[in-house]
């Protein structure tokens, strides 16, 4: 009984077979079919390899939400060189609430304003990358993916000690400010705390020494990440006027970065530049110096690195193989049908009259052989 039930189950499974096997004696091969098969297998292999490279690649996904964190502090990283002596310039930050942020985190270092050939080459390379980033924003994703591989964007040190006079001041360091709009001032004189506001002691500085030519080696907000190039990195402004004012209007966007190599809370920013000469007689009022006015955005951007899941890769791979197999089969059948129609219409190839007669003769000969063949088993002789 068990054997009978097994046989019934096996026969039932055989009836459900959706892939019936065809005997090889009924299969006819051709040169055109073999050629199409080779082309199909080659296309399958090529597309499968390309799909594997796509599977290995990652992309950056951008999500936007409202920034609800207003109580934390915002870090500003500064590295600016001004073409004036350190005792003649001062830097401080005044926010929208008229709160003067102390600049204790900033250091004043006497340096040479002119760059060495190696430093000038570094700056030109940085400016070239900046121009490419403005033209093709997809490069920023490459920078995000290769954070740890990229070298820090700080200006390389001088090769050897120079005997030139230290005619500039490098202001570098970081400060923490409130997450409200503010203004970073770099102007003549040291800043002083005043109950009524904000002031710089500039009375003892000669007007002829004013020179606010400057170079921004690095300016960023939030956590400082190596390999990330910010919009103002490498910016250099040269002026020959003592009354020049430089203004940078910055919009800071909080950004959470999550990649397979690093996770960090940083900030992106966009900037608009403006410069003008202070001339009170012409109605251009103001104070000579460098002013960085920043404001924080209420939106937060989450940048995460995405990868294609394995199941999606397998589905796409099956689609490639099955699609090419089915498409080439249909195209081969369609081309063969059209070829047969054309040959039949114009009596070409196998459809020529002589070829048709030869084929009929061969078929007739085969039929005769089948009718007069020797039997495999001889009949029993009569007794």
TrEMBL record:
Where is the protein found, in the record's own terms?
A: Endoplasmic reticulum membrane; Endoplasmic reticulum-Golgi intermediate compartment membrane; Golgi apparatus membrane
Question: Which residues span the membrane?
Answer: 36-55, 313-335
Protein topology in the membrane? Multi-pass membrane protein
Main location, first listed in the record: endoplasmic reticulum
One Pfam family cited in the UniProt record for this chain:
ERGIC_N
Endoplasmic reticulum vesicle transporter C-terminal domain: residues covered: 167-330
Give the matching InterPro entries. Erv (IPR045888), Erv_C (IPR012936), Erv_N (IPR039542)
Q: Determine the domain of life of the protein's source.
A: Eukaryota
Assigned keywords, A-Z: Endoplasmic reticulum, ER-Golgi transport, Golgi apparatus, Membrane, Transmembrane, Transmembrane helix, Transport
Identify the GO cellular component terms for this protein: COPII-coated ER to Golgi transport vesicle; endoplasmic reticulum membrane; endoplasmic reticulum-Golgi intermediate compartment membrane; Golgi membrane
Which intervals hold domain Endoplasmic reticulum vesicle transporter N-terminal? 13-99
Q: Tell me a GO biological process for this protein.
A: retrograde vesicle-mediated transport, Golgi to endoplasmic reticulum
The record's comment on protein family reads: Belongs to the ERGIC family.
User: What is the role of this chain?
Assistant: Plays a role in transport between endoplasmic reticulum and Golgi.
Name this polypeptide is given: Endoplasmic reticulum-Golgi intermediate compartment protein
């Amino acid at each position: 009984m068990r054997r009978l039930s097994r046989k019934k189950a096996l026969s039932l499974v055989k009836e459900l077979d959706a892939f019936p096997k065809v005997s090889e004696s009924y299969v006819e091969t051709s040169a055109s079919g073999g050629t199409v098969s080779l082309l199909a297998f080659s296309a399958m292999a090529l597309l499968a390899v390309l799909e594997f490279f796509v599977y290995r690649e990652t992309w950056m996904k951008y999500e936007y939400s409202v920034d609800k964190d207003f109580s934390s502090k915002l870090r500003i990283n500064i590295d600016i060189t001004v073409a004036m002596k350190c005792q003649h310039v001062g830097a401080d930050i005044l926010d929208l609430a008229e709160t003067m942020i102390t600049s204790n985190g900033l250091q004043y270092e006497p340096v040479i304003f002119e760059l060495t050939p190696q430093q000038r080459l570094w700056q030109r390379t940085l400016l070239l990358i900046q121009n490419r980033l403005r033209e093709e924003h997809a490069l920023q994703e490459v920078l995000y993916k290769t954070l740890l591989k990229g070298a820090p964007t700080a200006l390389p040190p001088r090769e050897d000690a120079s005997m030139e006079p230290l005619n500039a001041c490098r202001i570098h360091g970081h400060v923490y400010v409130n997450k409200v709009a503010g203004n970073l001032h770099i102007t003549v004189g040291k800043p002083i705390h005043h109950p009524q506001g904000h002031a710089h002691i500039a009375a003892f500085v000669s007007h002829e020494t004013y020179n606010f030519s400057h170079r921004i080696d690095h300016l960023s907000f939030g956590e400082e990440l190596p390999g990330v190039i910010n919009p103002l990195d490498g910016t250099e402004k040269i002026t020959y006027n003592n009354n020049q004012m430089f203004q940078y209007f910055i919009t800071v966007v909080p950004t959470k970065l999550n990649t397979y190599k690093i996770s960090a809370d940083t900030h992106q920013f966009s900037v608009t530049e403006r410069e003008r000469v202070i001339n009170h007689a012409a109605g251009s009022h103001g104070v000579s110096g460098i002013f960085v006015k920043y404001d924080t955005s209420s939106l937060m951007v989450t940048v995460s690195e995405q990868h294609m899941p394995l199941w999606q890769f397998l589905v796409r791979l099956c689609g490639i193989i099955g699609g090419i197999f089915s498409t080439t089969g249909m195209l081969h059948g369609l081309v063969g049908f059209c070829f047969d129609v054309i040959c039949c219409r114009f009596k070409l190839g196998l459809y020529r009259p002589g070829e048709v007669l030869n084929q009929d003769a061969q078929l007739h000969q085969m039929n005769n052989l089948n009718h007069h063949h020797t039997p495999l088993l001889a009949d029993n002789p009569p007794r």
